[in-house]
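Look over both lines:
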Amino acid sequence: MSRRARAGIELAPRAGKPGGRGFDTFLKAYESDLLVRVTGDIIALSPPLICEKKHIDDIFGILGDVLKKVD
């Protein structure tokens, strides 16, 4: 059985456009060289267990910047 660290962030949906905010976040993250999974308006993160603190800091730094840009 594989053990992985997982985290999810639920975003508030846009009125009349469920999943739109999540998809826009996915695109902006990808453009910033960060790959996340998205299900509707939920961002899922699954970094490998061998990652170091610096990698986690980088992930959340990029994701924080992305979330500031998504309305």
Summary: The domain at 7-69 is CATH 3.90.1150.10 (Aspartate Aminotransferase, domain 1). Strands lie at 7-10, 37-39, 42-45.
